Batch of 2 targets.
Target 1
Amino acid sequence: MTDTNTNNKKTVPSKAHPKVTATLRQAMLEFQRLAVTAKKDGKNPHFRSNYSTLESVISAVNQGNQFGLFFTQEIDYVYTSHMETKSEVVVVTTVRHVIDESTYVSKLPIIMSQANYENPQKIGSAITYAKRYTLQSVYGLPSEDDDGNEASKPTIQVSKPKMKGEDDGL
């Protein structure tokens, strides 16, 4: 993530927008103090779980507007070799502040199997996924771990009860 400030002047928030802070960092702090969460309004039948849709995440992060925060997201290509012969598709999320013009920039690659690049719906799903999780990450929104919860649960091994007279293998 990149943090840039292109303008060193400090402007006082206006009376019309009293919650707008002077800097992006102050705005992000005030936003995080709200403890905003994204509503889990999507259902994943494969994992039998609920998740926050992109629309729900956008609705949650837009609460930062009151402090002067806003964001943009775009799809871009990033060259991954020094000869610029290979590139990957990335979602670029930029969080900006209306007063100090600082920005946070985050780039997340779209990761898919090569076969899925021929399927526009798979590409769209991967882009939506990247947009959603990048916004959640940049704004610090809590999210349900869609695959880590199961992986982190302790495994319980149950031994088969031995019948009387079974050999212990000794």
Target 2
Amino acid sequence: MDFKIFEKEHFKTLIQFKDSIQFENLLSQNEISFSTDVISNTNISDYRRYYFLEENRAKINLILKENAIIPLNENYGVSDLQQSKKIYKIYVIALLSIFIILFGIFYLIKIIS
């Protein structure tokens, strides 16, 4: 672990615990410094949080792609979920509005006839 990472521009990502040994081995082979800690408060799986220097982002992305390791970016994961919830709410409100308008039109036509 390299705690000097925190002194420079860095980024973080989450890797499932089951992939962490392979991932750390690949990081060592590519001589990429990192810092890590364990997150055990998720319902699905345990994760390890990794911190890397920003200058190593391209190397990390290549390692992840070549080895089919799926990362979870904390910053994007939460906001994507919140964005999905907002879109879903807008979709439901739009459908309800259309239903109410159509019901009102049919009701008015029935009254006029």
